Amino acid sequence: MSQSGFVIVRAPGRMCLFGEHQDYLGLPVIAAAIDRYIEMRARRNGGDRFRIEMPDIDAFREIHTEDRFPVLEKRDY
Q1: What CA–CA distance (Å, rounded) separates 13 from 35?
Q2: Average pLDDT, stretch 44-65?
Q3: 39 phi and psi, to 5 degrees?
Q4: What's the pLDDT score for residue 10?
């Protein structure tokens, strides 16, 4: 955890050369890491919601922990 109380995680992006959307089905994929990434910082807010800030598109979304979501189908990802 950082000094500001945030947990910070970062994951590389990838380019799929063959087998797009097959990896989660257990089928072969040829992919390569690229010099792009996604980064997430999180900290407890003491409430019953998640606030997702997306500064690159100047937007945010709040999700309350008691919200109900429709049942996802096999290919909803």
Answers
A1: 7
A2: 86
A3: -125, 140
A4: 93
Average pLDDT over residues 1-29: 83
Count of structural domains, the chain: 1
Q: How far apart are CA 30 and CA 18, in angstroms?
A: 5
For the chain, report the end-to-end CA distance as a whole number of angstroms: 29
Q: Which residues on neighbouring strands pair with residue 30, listed in sequence order?
A: 18
Q: Does residue 12 sit within a domain?
A: yes
Is a pLDDT exceeding 80 seen at residue 30? yes
Q: Report DSSP state, residue 73.
A: P
Query: Nearest-5° angle of CA 54, CA 65, CA 76?
Result: 65
Give the pLDDT confidence score for residue 53 in this predicted structure.
87
Which residues constitute the domain of residue 43?
A: 7-64
For residue 2, being part of any structural domain is answered with no
